[in-house]
Amino acid sequence: MTVVYLDYNATAPVRPEVLDAMHDALQAVGNASSVHGPGRAARARLDNARDAVARLVNAAPREVYFTSGGTEANYLALRGLPAITRPGQVAVSAIEHDAVLHAAPEGCHRIPVGQDGIVDLSAFEQMLGRDRNREIGLVSVMLANNETG
User: Fold this and answer.
1) How far, CA to CA in Å, does 75 sit from each of 30, 56, 63, 135?
2) Which run of H or of E encompasses 46?
3) What is the mean pLDDT of the chain?
4) H or E segment and range at residue 138
5) In the chain, pLDDT over 90 holds for what percent of residues?
6) Cα-based distances in Å from 28 to 44, 71, 133
């Protein structure tokens, strides 16, 4: 029997070139914060990765942060931005992943969705226009839902 895996939202096969790069990186030892040779080599690998990601997303390397996973990244984005200091500066869709909904600050806007799970753009535009004195600094809307695809 041939197995067809369709839950690419959860995980996906790793490309061979990625496996090769991971193998090389995992063979190396060294704390990137250390000053000894292996530490400096680890720092160089980390800096090269940061530079590559920065180029890919047209950002400065100092703007790229690596986290241990999605939940930590969501929390950092929703709670760690200094620009978001007042209630109401964050808007998240009503069907975000639980990690986003739990990390969203109290008083954030919930963007309504239709029965199809798609953001109600009219309602969102009204939400944005309701109070022009309140800036929304961050909007979180998922591309593919973790429950429905």
Assistant:
1) 28, 23, 16, 20
2) helix 37-56
3) 87
4) strand 138-140
5) 50
6) 12, 27, 52
Q: With 0-12 CB in 10 A as exposed, 13-18 as middle and 19+ as buried, what is 78?
A: buried
Q: Please write the tens of the pLDDT for every residue from 69-111.
A: 989 999 888 887 765 656 678 889 999 999 999 988 888 889 9
| 125: helix, strand or coil | helix
Report the distance separating Cα 63 and Cα 100, nearest Å. Answer: 21
Cα separation, 41 vs 39, whole angstroms: 5
Full-model pTM? 0.73
57 or 146: which leads in pLDDT = 57
Give the 3-state DSSP-derived string for 61-104, with helices as H, strands as E and coil as C: HHHCCCCCCHHHHHHHHHHCCCCCCCCCCEEEECCCCHHHHHHC
Tens digits of per-residue pLDDT, 123-148?
998 888 766 656 788 889 988 877 77
Give the separation between CA 109 and CA 129, rounded to whole angstroms. 13
The Cα–Cα gap between 107 and 87 comes to 5
